[in-house]
Design goal:
- The protein is an alpha+beta fold.
- Among the domains are: 18-270, 4-Layer Sandwich (Phosphatase 2c, domain 1); 280-419; 657-722.
- The protein has helices at residues 28-31, 78-92, 98-115, 162-168, 179-182, 216-219, 224-231, 237-250, 278-329, 333-347, 355-386, 390-405, 415-418, 421-449, 453-470, 473-539, 543-563, 566-607, 611-627, 631-672, 676-692, 696-740; strands at 34-42, 51-57, 62-69, 123-130, 134-140, 144-149, 152-156, 198-199, 203-204, 209-214, 261-270.
- Helix 14 (421-449) packs antiparallel against helix 15 (453-470).
- The longest helix is centred in the last third of the chain and has 67 residues, at 473-539.
- The protein is flat and about 135 Å long.
């Protein structure tokens, strides 16, 4: 599909060629109707045409779609993607229902979300569908549809923009052009968040109707009245489109920016007409009334029997529920579970016809299900408690208590009257105690495996005290055996550890002595290496080598400190100080060499009369000599700075005098040209500048030049006045001569 003269080949394989006429098909509704479609799509002054139009005509349905892109995506044409998606869905399941049209547009919106790349895909769309007799349209954004009928406006769609909202609220008049407001859209394809798609009601089509679909680039410039006027002398769609295009272009200035615009018109020359079937319709209505009456009588009998059976079933369910409640009160949770289970099974046979019956049946089933859950939880909890699975028992009791105190209240029942919640609370407390004792025993057993006998005994004794508090004699006997076993194992382990400890201590003392001797010998070797490296590095003026020697001395010193060799620590300290002093002296010499390099650089700049760069170099040298506290060298650099400053001052003065003399020369040239005012201005400017650099002799000379220029200006002005007077006298003489004549 493209924006050529046949844009929809991929969607209507049976589309006739222009020579065959548009709108005539092979069979059925399309065969007995005549719809003529034409369109124009131009890019204006834009680089690309972002508008798109396509349509499809089938045997029973036809669809026209126009779209406009708003994004900057170059690889994907969002308008083409939207139209392709809509027409693809339409050709598979053609329909003019509101739900279907909205689903087509929603699918295009989903495709936008799926295929958005660097840029978010955005577009407006207008979809018009017909069965060749009736039509409906759906849109999102600001593409528009106009329908003209009998030289009047039958329909003008509204858009989803700020402009339309202001028109609706009476802020702006309709059919005016407000570019900024009409481009401010509330909804469009590709929008983030919720999307609103407007769909019209189903409308009849009549012969001679004219449909006009357009994008914003057209309807923003051309009013609805102008569209209707252009239709007056247009008999064919091509004529109508040409007139509208000429009208649009006539409104553009030569240099004005022209947006993309697309127009598509459909001339409904003939709609599909169905045959009249009034007699057959009367027969069908009579049969339908008879069937409905029979159904009403049958349903009445069925409902009466159903209500009677329902009442009996509800009474039976109530008796089962009552028995279950009594078993709950007596703590026979298993029996209560059986009763509620039977009642819940019976409730499945309840059937309601009206909505109120369905709701009542659901309430009965919800009530029984809640009671069944409660009985099941209590039965499971008691079973877990008997089996010693206290964690599961506590969890089941907690859920049962929540069910009894909160969930069942919603059904307005008397369950709390039948259920002893204190029993649940007591059982929960008991499960908590037993669970805690179990946790203590398990923890103690784990500590025994890790030979943490003291901690294990503490936990066993704590478990014993809790067992005594709840009066569980069997549990007390079991814990007593555990305590005795822990004591025996602790004593055996303690004796074994003492023997191992004594042997280990003797072995460690021997190892410590040998390790000290080995470290001392190795450290002496490192000290010898550090002394050798220091001597060689000092001789070679190798700062990196001296620093490496210092690192070795520091490592040796740390070892001597650890071994308690204080005298050797002091000796190493002296060697480190000597090495650092050597580094400092060498660094000062290197800095002095750099400073003398700056002196040499400054001398070179002086030879080339680059006095500013020379001053910078001399100052760098002076600062470095000052930091190194070399007074003589500082004095040498200062003398160089004074000399460079003097030479720089003399150079600047000569340059300034030369520039001022050029201004004075400009005044001389203007004086020769007779521009006395310009010459005086240049002389005064030069005079001020000479005074600024204290050249008073030159300034006095310029004062004489200024006076001379002013005198010449006065003489020139006086001569001009004489010429004016002479010309006046001559004119008077001529007037006298004319009077005489």
């Amino acid at each position: 599909m493209n924006t050529s003269n046949n844009p929809n080949d991929s969607f209507q394989p049976k589309q006739p060629s222009p020579s065959q006429g548009v709108g005539m098909g092979a069979s059925l509704r399309r065969l007995n109707s005549d719809f003529a479609t034409r369109f124009i799509s131009e890019k204006g002054t834009m680089l690309r045409n972002r508008d798109y139009f396509a349509f499809v005509e089938m045997d029973g349905f036809a669809c026209w779609v126009i779209a406009e892109s708003y994004d900057n995506e170059l690889e994907v044409s969002s308008a083409k993607l939207a139209i392709g998606t809509v027409l693809g869905r339409f050709t598979k399941k053609p329909s003019i229902s509101k739900r279907k049209l909205k689903s087509y547009v929603k699918e295009a919106h989903r495709q936008f979300k799926k295929q958005s790349g660097r840029f978010q895909l955005k577009a407006s769309i207008m979809v018009v569908a017909t069965n060749y007799k009736k039509m409906r349209y759906a849109h999102c954004g600001n593409c528009r549809l106009h329908i003209f009928r009998n030289n009047n406006i039958a329909l003008k769609s509204v858009d989803q923009s700020l402009y339309q909202e202001m028109v609706r609220n009476g802020v702006l008049p309709d059919d005016e052009h407000y570019t900024e407001e009409s481009r401010n859209l509330f909804h469009y394809l590709g929008k983030r968040g919720s999307l609103k798609i407007n769909a019209s009601k189903k409308m009849d089509l009549y012969d001679e109707d004219v449909l006009l679909l357009s994008t914003w680039g057209f309807w923003e410039k051309v009013s609805t009245i102008e569209m209707l006027d252009a239709l007056e002398d247009s008999l064919e769609p091509d004529d109508y489109l040409d007139t509208l295009q000429d009208l649009l272009l006539s409104k553009q200035d030569v240099e004005e920016h022209v947006n993309n615009f697309t127009l598509a018109t459909v001339f409904v020359k003939k709609t599909f007409q169905e045959k009249s079937n009034k007699k057959r319709n009367k027969i069908i209505i009579t049969i339908v009334v008879a069937v409905v009456l029979a159904l009403v009588i049958g349903f009445s009998i069925f409902f009466w029997n159903s209500n009677r059976n329902r009442t009996n079933l509800i009474n039976s369910i109530a008796e089962q529920e009552q028995r279950g409640n009594i078993h709950l009160r007596d703590r026979n949770f298993g029996r209560a579970l059986n009763e509620f289970d039977d009642a819940l099974t019976s409730s499945e046979d309840l059937r309601g016809i009206r909505r109120s019956r369905v709701r009542a049946n659901q309430e009965i089933q919800d009530n029984l299900a809640a009671r069944h859950r409660l009985a099941q939880l209590l039965t499971d909890a008691e079973s877990f408690f008997r089996d010693g699975n206290y964690q599961e028992a506590r969890f089941a009791f907690e859920r049962a208590l929540d069910e009894a105190t909160s969930s069942l209240v919603l059904f307005d029942t008397d369950i709390l009257y039948f259920l002893d919640t204190n029993h649940i609370n007591n059982r929960m407390a008991a499960t908590n105690d037993h669970e805690f004792i179990q946790d203590l025993i398990l923890t103690a057993d784990s500590q025994m495996a890790l030979m943490q006998f003291d901690l294990a005994l503490d936990n066993y004794w704590q478990a014993m005290r809790l067992a005594e508090a709840i009066g569980n004699a069997r549990l007390q006997r079991d814990i007593a055996l555990m305590i005795e076993r822990a004591r025996s194992q602790a004593q055996v382990e303690e004796n074994a550890q003492l023997a191992v400890q004594r042997e280990q201590e003797a072995r460690e003392q021997e190892q410590v002595a040998q390790a000290r001797a080995d470290r001392l010998l190795a450290n002496e070797v490192v000290e010898l290496e550090a002394n050798r490296l220091l001597q060689v590095s000092i001789s070679n003026r190798d700062i990196a080598g001296i620093e490496r020697a210092i690192e070795l001395f520091a490592a040796v010193q740390n070892v001597y400190i650890e071994l308690g060799e204080i005298s050797r620590v002091i000796a190493i300290d002296q060697r480190i100080s000597e090495a650092r002093e050597s580094i400092r002296q060498q660094e000062e010499d290197e800095q002095a060499d750099i400073a003398w390099g700056y002196i040499t650089t400054g001398d070179n700049f002086m030879l080339t009369n680059n006095f500013v760069r020379a001053l910078d170099s001399y100052r760098m040298a002076r600062d470095m000599f000052a930091i190194l506290r070399r007074t003589d060298d500082v004095n040498i650099a200062s003398e160089r700075i004074s000399l460079a400053t003097t030479r720089l001052t003399e150079s600047d003065m000569a340059y300034a005098i030369l520039n001022i003399m050029m201004i004075e020369s400009e005044g001389d040239d203007l004086l020769l040209q007779g521009d006395f005012a310009g010459a005086i201005e240049r002389y005064m400017q030069a005079q001020i500048l000479f005074r600024g650099i204290n050249e008073m002799d030159r300034a006095l000379l310029l004062e004489y030049k200024i006076r001379g220029a002013r005198e010449m200006e006065s003489l020139s002005s006086f001569s001009a006045d004489d010429n004016d007077n002479n010309s006046g006298d001559e004119s008077d003489d001529e007037e006298d001569d004319s009077d005489d004549n």
